[in-house]
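Kindly review this record before class:
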Amino acid sequence: MKPVPLLAALLATVVSLQAVTPEGKQKLVFIAGKPSHPPGMHEFRAGTMLLEQCLKSVPNLVVDRHEMGWVSDEKTFEDADAVVIYADGGGKHPAVVDGHLETLRKLTAKGVGFGCMHYGVEVVAGQAGKEFQEWLGGHYENAYSCNPIWDANYTTLPKHPISNGVLPFATKDEWYIHMRFRPAFGHGVTPAQDGAAKFVPILVANPSDATRDGPYVAPKGPYPHIQAEKGSPETMMWTIERADGGRGFGFTGGHFHANWGNDNVRKAVLNALLWVAKVEVPEKGVESVVSPETLSQNLDPKPAPKPKSASSETPRVFQRVATR
């Protein structure tokens, strides 16, 4: 018997919300951005390769990894359950150039998950701010958000699959603060729901007063509205469950490649990659081991930064700006 039209439509809807590969596995499309920044920073290619390798042992998951800012063939999206971008953002964000925003709009409308990491959480508000608030829950906005390099101490973690097996930790990174979250989510430091989406902060820490005073990476600041919130917590990783059935997450760390050697940083992101693709996260999280040798593999060939001048503060400031 052929299914009646209504039943066929319902079946098509279910399939669109939970796409699977021909092998019956969930599929994560993982996109690395183009090379940028000095050595050891924004190592998108090496970082995605390392994380992909750590996910090899996960059953029921296919990782389709791409480089240089986009997929080689958009047909790969046809059975994708999630798309995650680890790349430079701003006005040339991979999500907004060459018609990619419309492609992502169609995918998220089907319930496909979406995640962005580090600079990838930044878009120009007029280009894709509304979309990123809808798909991720929020984004970095230039001059509203800021990007200091500081030691974030995550003393507590919420009960959430992404937190499985993750212990409290502290790392020095370019942890962005003061994201432009949906208005209903406030500053994004507590769980919230706006009727269309459920928001959960994952990594929350309290920047020191000195961190809020700057300098930020670029522009160096300080910004009075950032200083005015001294003593307040900030969210550096968050999740959203959308009304369309899709999931999203933002992770502002990932500036320094060496931090993938931190077991808890790595586990939180690996768990997030599973969660956004609707793969069950193990009770103890994704177990993986990364050696110093592994961290040194697949790095982009980049010129070494120029030596700092001991006679002037200016070169040091420009060096920090260059790390943006």
